[in-house]
Every structure is written in structure tokens, then in C-alpha cells.
Write a structure and sequence with these properties.
The radius of gyration is 26 Å and the shape is elongated. The N and C termini lie far apart (about 85 Å). It is an all-alpha fold. It contains six helices and no strands.
């Protein structure tokens, strides 16, 4: 039987690409089923999107600037990602001040303290007034 298989010429057919696609789709469906199982409160949400902020809203905000006439999808994504990282960074720094006050909730005074104490946030001084 092995001789029969080896002797037959192998030629690509039109059904082979369909078979490959269906295998990829089945792998994708398996991955979706695995990711849909709750593994944690944040895990299911973070794997679905690369950006947590709404890109349409970011683009609308960018277009409010009179100097911006067009905004490519790449630039909108980069601005959204940079904004996420900035918010994460300032929130972590403000959390330190909240924990010093033995609180779990961030308050405005925690943000003010982080802005005053960290040189990287000096450009924000006076913006919360």
C-alpha cells in the first residue's frame, strides 16, 4: 500500500486550499472557544482588542485640532496606545499615594500628588484646577 501512495504523483488540487482554510478556521474556532472560557476577570477582554480605547472617539478628538485634516488608522492607533500607556503610568503612580493613605480608591489629591512629585508629569501642573 505504501508503494501505491509513493507512486502516485502529487499535484495540488482546488480542494487542498479549501482544506487548509477549513483547518485554519477550525484552529481559530478552537482558540476562540478556549479564550471564551473565563480564566480571569480581565483576560477575556484584553485578548479581543489591541486598543482598549474607542478608535473612532480618538479620531474625532484628533480632528478637533485645526492643524489635523486627515488622520490615518495607524496614527489613530498609535495615539490610542500611547494614551493607554500614559493613563496606566499616572494611575500606578497615583496608586502609591492612595496606598500611603490606606485607601484602595484613587482620588484627585492622589493624582495631584503624583503630578507634583514626579518630574515627568510637570507639564500637567495646573491642568486639574
Amino acid at each position: 500500500m505504501a508503494a501505491t501512495v509513493a507512486a502516485a504523483p502529487v499535484t495540488p488540487t482546488e480542494t487542498e486550499p479549501d482544506r487548509c482554510v477549513s483547518e485554519e478556521e477550525s484552529r481559530g474556532n478552537e482558540a476562540e472557544e478556549e479564550s471564551s472560557q473565563p480564566t480571569g476577570p480581565v483576560t477575556a477582554v484584553t485578548h479581543n482588542r489591541l486598543s482598549k480605547l474607542p478608535l473612532a472617539r480618538i479620531k474625532a478628538l484628533m480632528k478637533t485640532d485645526p492643524d489635523v485634516s486627515l488622520a490615518s488608522q495607524e496614527s489613530v492607533f498609535i495615539i490610542a496606545k500611547a494614551t493607554e500607556l500614559f493613563v496606566e503610568m499616572i494611575a500606578k503612580d497615583a496608586l502609591v499615594y492612595a496606598q500611603q493613605g490606606k485607601r484602595k480608591t484613587l482620588q484627585r489629591k492622589d493624582l495631584d500628588n503624583a503630578i507634583e512629585a514626579i518630574d515627568e508629569f510637570a507639564f500637567l501642573e495646573g491642568t486639574l484646577d
